[in-house]
Amino acid sequence: MLIPNSTSMVDDGYFDSSPLRNDGPSTHATSTFIVANRLPVEWQAVSGWRPSPGGLVSALEPALKNLNAVWVGWRGSPAPEDSRGPRPTRPPRTDNIAIIEIPMTKREVVDFYDGVCNTAFWPLYHEVGIAPVFCDEEFEVYRRINQRFADCVARSAPAGAPVWVHDYQLQLVPALLRETRPDLRIGFFLHVPFPSPEEFETLPWNENVLDGLLGADLIGFQTASSAERFMAVACLHASVRREGNSLLVSEPTGTRRVTVGVFPIGPDSERFSSLAASPAAQESAARIRADFDAPELILLGVDRLDYTKGIDVRIRAVADLLKSDEFKGRDIQFIQVAMPSRSDLTAYQHLRATVEETLLSANAELAALGLRPIHYVYEAVPTEEVVALYVAADIMLVTSLADGMNLVSKEFVACRQAGDGGLVLSRTTGAAAQLHDAWLVEPGDVADLTRGMGEAIRAEVDETRGRMERLRQAVFTADARHWAEAFLARLNKAR
Ligand code: F6P
Question: Which of 253, 256, 337, 396 is disulfide-compatible with 412, CB 3.0–4.6 A?
Fold first, then answer.
């Protein structure tokens, strides 16, 4: 029997009801299952439902428009502890996407999301000098939550359905799902970089993670280097050998093929382009420039406040640039948006303090020279306002120390309909592999950042326009829909 009918999603007596469903127009009979930690919307007690943060949701949701999709995920906040209390509000309907919610208690959020996901895997996989913390008790919760996701899909997916599991929060799901539902076509996509074999070796649960991932038929990465690192790690396993871009896994029942592929994610380029062209965005952009007293140039940074994004190094580099003999006579405004993220974690609290101290001292130096202070915004800015900033800016600074892809860089390009504007981009983002026409920089090196920014500012109009034209070509030919279609087409053929 391939479709068990009694699998319980509730493995620990918590939340004694069926999963919260908010089925849209799809029936599950012909659906693609999306399994991601976050649902496309998140619930916050103060603000109610709103779009979830992060690149995964912003790229995946629009890519599903024409698919009959079911999205299995978490609402981004703990569910009420007491199941006798009122049931929490259901997520709002999302066009063409049926929602199945996976609940987590407060304690589970601490151990799973704050703990294993963002204090162990996130720093380990990004390798930016923040030491990961490993805790076996928390990993047990990670295993339990992964099992909860797998059970939910096992119970809901029709025979042979494609199931697309996302990211570092759910690395055990492919194998857990295969145990009960070998009929499903299981794909896994890692949105963040895969670490070097030496780094992965330090993970106490590396065998569990490898076994979990190898449960998939297709494993996708943002870059060729992540795919190669993963294959190198997998081939250390006695039961795995490589054949081209596949891994052959020996199992008691025979040999199983796991295909490995590179699928660089893109934004919903058309949506960003039409938002940018809208009268509302054009007016807001003009207002932004006017509010800053029409500077000669606006430099812009937009990031989640994360230690992978290199925000403090960028602030120092911009301050050096603005104070330099060459540029101190120019009228240049730098705007940095830092969106709050994972603010319960100590590393993120420290980061905020570091960034804001760096900003204060940079602004003191700039003020002493009579230069414009850096304008810093620490809040969750809605997409429409970010688009207005993309339109208002002249040069976008994306200088992450490590980034699986970085969609901000591609969104900026999608919004530059006038064909002008420059992009300064870190070599260590996945995006650098497609956006060769950006001014590429070493993100941890203040001098190299000022070099790249200086070149972007000095460039002749023709060079800037030529680069932007080629960047736009890259961003419009490989957008979110293209990414999802390419992955799902390969998943269909993956066995
Ligand atoms: O980069 C992968 C990703 O899943 C993005 O969607 C998001 O920026 C981040 O990682 C996760 O953020 P959060 O912890 O807020 O879900």
Answer: 396
Residues 384 and 330 in one domain: yes
Check residue 101 and give its pLDDT.
94
Residue 363, pLDDT score? 98
Is 76 within 8 Å of 39 (Cβ atoms)? yes
* Region for 461 from its dihedrals, namely left if φ exceeds 0, alpha if ψ lies in -120 to 50, beta otherwise: alpha
Answer yes or no: is 381 within a domain.
yes
Mean pLDDT confidence for 213-229: 98
The two beta strands, 254-262 and 246-251, are: antiparallel
Select from 56, 121, 194 the residue to mutate for testing ligand 1; criterion: most ligand atoms less than 8 Å from CB.
56
Does 361 lie in the same domain as 227? no
| Residue from 168, 308, 341 whose mutation best tests the ligand 1 pocket (most atoms within 8 A of CB) | 341
In a domain, 9, yes or no: no
C-alpha to C-alpha distance for 118 and 100, rounded to whole angstroms? 24
Joined together, the tokens standing for residue 14 give: 């918590």
Residues 485 and 473 in one domain: no
Helices (H), 131-268: 136-156, 173-180, 197-201, 206-213, 224-234
Query: 27 C-alpha vs ligand 1 centroid, how far in Å?
Result: 29
> Could you tell me if 299 and 159 lie in one domain?
no
Residues 205 and 296 placed together within one structural domain of the fold: no
* Domain count of the fold of the chain: 2
Instruction: Look at residue 299 and tell me if it is in a domain.
Output: yes
Question: What pLDDT is recorded for position 92?
Answer: 74
Q: Are residues 256 and 323 both part of a single domain?
A: no
235 shares its domain with 275: no
Which value, to the nearest 10 degrees, does the dihedral of the CA atoms of residues 429, 434, 439, 441 take? 30
Q: Encode pLDDT of 16-66 as tens digits.
A: 334 455 554 444 556 899 999 999 999 888 778 888 888 888 888 888 877
Whole-number Å distance, alpha carbon 486 to ligand 1 midpoint, is: 22
Q: How many residues in total does the chain contain?
A: 495
Q: Do 243 and 109 sit in the same domain of this protein?
A: yes
Find where tokens 């120019």 sit. Answer: 330
Domain-located, residue 397? yes
pLDDT in tens, 376-424: 999 999 999 999 999 999 999 999 999 999 999 999 999 999 999 999 9
Q: Which domain holds residue 35?
A: 20-265+481-492
If you take atom 14 of ligand 1, which residue's CA is the nearest one? 342
